[in-house]
Amino acid sequence: MINWFKGLQHPEAFHGKDSKSPYFEGWYHKLVSKTKRSIVIIPGMYRSGEDNNEFAFIMIFDGNSGDVHFERFSIDNFISKTAAYDTGIGKNHFSKDKIILDIRSESFSIRGSVNFNSTTPWPVTLLEPGCMGWYSYLPIMECYHGILSMNHSLSGELSMNGENLNFDAGVGYIEKDWGRNFPQSWIWAQANHFKKENVSLSASIAKIPLLGTRFAGFIVGLLINNKLYRFTTYRSAKIIKIKKNSDKIEWVLKQRDLTLSISIIVGKKSGMLYAPDKYDMVEKVEEHLDSSIKIKLQKHQEIILEDQSDYAATEVVGDIESLLELANSA
What we know:
12-stranded antiparallel sheet
C-alpha cells in the first residue's frame, strides 16, 4: 500500500510491479514533424485475467497511411522503473526525455531516436497527484490516466520501412493509461498545432464505473504560454452542453468564471489501435490524426483565446449516446 501511494506521485512511472491480473499499462507518444507528419508510438505491457497470456508490446500508428503495427515481445524483455519513466523493451528504450527504437521484422522496420525538450507535465501535488486529481487515490478505479507532457519540442529522426522521418523542430505529446481495462466508452481529443504558438489542448470524457454506478468523468486541460487552464470533474467544472452529430462534436464547459467551447470535426483517415480485452490486446480503438478542433476560452465576455488546429488526434469509442446522456444529466 505504501508503494502504491508513493507511485501516485509519479504517474509517469510503472505501476504494475505488484498488480493483480488483469492488468495493462501503456505510454502514448504523439510525434508531429515540422512538415506535419504524425506518428504515434505506444510501448506497454499486458496481462490477461483469464489465462496466462502476458507480454510486452510496442505499437506504431502511421497517421499518413493509417497503418498500425503491433510488435509483441516476451514479458522477460520488459524492464520498467517504479519511480520514473524509464522503460526498456528489447533493444528499445523510452523515457520522458527520449525514445530509442530498433524493430526489424519481416513486414515492418523502424530504427532511430527522438529527443524531447522542455516537457510540460500536468502538475503533480499531494492534493492533485496528476490529471485525475483525488480520484487517483481510489484503488478501485478501473483505469488510471496520466498526462506526462502537454507540449514539448522534438529533435532526431526515425527510419520507418525505409522512409526517413525527420523530427527536428517538431512537436510532441505524452500521456499514459494503466489499470484493469479501458472504459466502456469515451471521447478524446488532443492538439498542439494551433495558429498561435504555445497552445496545447487535451480533452477527454469517459463513462466511469464507481461503486455500482456510472458517471461521465472528464479531464480537460488547455495550455496557453505555459499556463494550464483545468476543467475537470474533481474541480467541480460543469458541462453546459455536449452533443454529437455525425462527425461533429460540440462541447462547452464552465469552471467558475471561465467558459471553454470546443468544436471537433473528426478526420477522414484513421488507424485501429489495440486495446486490452479479456484474453489479449485486440484491435478496438479507432484513432484519427487528421481531425480539426476550434476552441474559445472566455472569462465572462472577454475572449482570452480563440484558435483552430487542423492536426488534431481524436478517438470516439463505444456507446457514445449513453455517455452523452450521462454527461448532460449531471
